[in-house]
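Re: weekly structure request thread

Next one in the queue (651 aa):
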Amino acid sequence: MGTADDDGVFEVYRDRVDRPLSRLFREYGLREIEWFTLGMVANVTARVASLLPPLVLGVAIDAVFVGESDYTLPLVPDAWLPTGDEAQFWFSVAVIVGSFVVTGVFTWIYGVAANVFAHRVMHDVRTDSFAKMQRLDMPFFDDKQTGEVMSVLNNDASNLEVFLDNALQNSARLGVMVLGIAAVLVYLNWQLALVTLVVIPAMVGFTLWFMRAVEPRYVAQRSSVGDLNTRLENSLGGVELVKASATEDHETEKVTAASYSYFEHTMAVLRLNYLYRPGMELLAGVAFAATFLVGGVWLFSGAPGPFTGELSVGAFVTFIFLTQRIVTPLAEVSNIVDQYENAKASSERVFGLMDVPVKITGPDDHAPLDDVAGRVEYRDVDFAYPETALAAAEGDEHGELVLSDVTFTAEPGETVALVGPTGAGKSTVCKLLLRLYDVTDGEIRLDGTDIREYALEDLRGAIGYVSQDTVLFDGTVAENIRYGRFDASHEDVVAAAKDAEAHEFIQRLPQGYDTRVGEDGVKLSGGQRQRLSIARTVLQDPEILVFDEATSAVDTETELLIQRSLERLTEDRTTFVIAHRLSTVRDADRILVLDGGEIVERGTHEALLEDGGLYATLWSVQAGEIESLPDEFLADARRRAAERPPRDGED
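Done, posted below.
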């Protein structure tokens, strides 16, 4: 078992889950208790009814055919029973037929009720798990393999359904059959019953050993399923890169290794099953053979050894039938244990996901955010990514600072550009505004209020975010533009597309706005995907805009068209623009130059060029005035930026 040092947050919280199947029933099973109760009652009724035919047959043999005893049934007053051989025969036939009818009807009721119960619980578990996954903080997704989460939502939820549908009810059936058969056998001949039931303690001990031995193997098997799903998802998601790099064999080797690991863990489970199930069948078979041997000798030669009394032919026949009946459910204990251990491992993973704490939340008594002016203040903001997702969940162990002492103000309606070398912290600054992460120190204020005082949905609803990594869903063009404003009319969708310079290319698609874009928009070019993302933000009509390399995947002509539309869109909105291509931000009201997580320069385009610092150097490279950026040249630019005194009004 891993420790907090080498396991992720998912594994750590999974290992902390206590009595997972009991918790599953408490939190989810009790919601559907009426279906569970109906299934359990029907199951017990059907099993009790199924015990009547062998019992009635034995009584009929002794009383009607052999004539060695009176016609009596346990728990039935003699006054209710017919007299005379013929009447007793037909009564026996009626009881046997009636018991089969009752067994069939109540088995059907049990099947329906058990399936409704199991599938409703599975539905609730899957949807609650997905809802929790949606609420988890970004560090979880930075650190967690999505294949494992998919395994929880699909494989583990299905394992729980199998357990609730089969194992839980079969356990009740097994209990009723064993106790019922034992009671009937003891009633008929308690001495011979001891021979039949003597193997039960051995079966219980064998089962307990199996459960202890197989549990860690199931945990390892479920983990290997998550690893395999992750490997498959990564390989298929990056298939274009794989083909372009001619690394098909490399990816196949990785999938083969993950698949073989799953195979090995599965075989480790099956090897125990191969030992357990035949072992249980052997013990049950020994019970049957011993019963047949002792009972047969008893009939031929009288009570053998320490046994006393008489054994009738009818009682012996009933023993043989019921002993055979007890063999099957006892042999099926392996399936029940198999499903139990599988469900236990799966429920630990489900509740491990459920128990991961969410740190980034809004207060219950949150501040109102109705009329947004758009004044954004960063005050002495420091930020460090957590060392691990577990550190984020536990609220400690931050790594090195990636942002340090970031302080600036964006007035309502201003456009603020963030530029700088790759890895300078530009995107992180804006992600903090959305509270995808929370500041390590300092604060960010919107309209004078710390953003942590607002409800998350209100804060994020006021901000339109266009990422350089465009996300599209497998739906139509119109559905993707409408995402976030699902009630928007078609006319509004078209207007947003026109503002994003997307309308013309959409009209050229096979079905226009009804064209399906494929998973992650694979049927569109990078520039087309970005324009749809911009159209989606236009349609949402937020008060604050964030464009993170929003035009990085479009050609120069399209960029100019988009820039023109963005100028209209940003005219009265506070806007943050992150750009590597400095030509797109030269008209910004203020440009912040970040380097190493710090703001090293700030000002307008013209003022920064006059300073001759880092911004001027980057501009010269992009303008082609110099061919490359030597390390010493960049260091000198940074030194000049650091030595320049602040202008009036600067922090």
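DSSP finds 24 helices and ten strands in the chain. Residues 248-301 form the longest helix (54 residues).
Next request, please.
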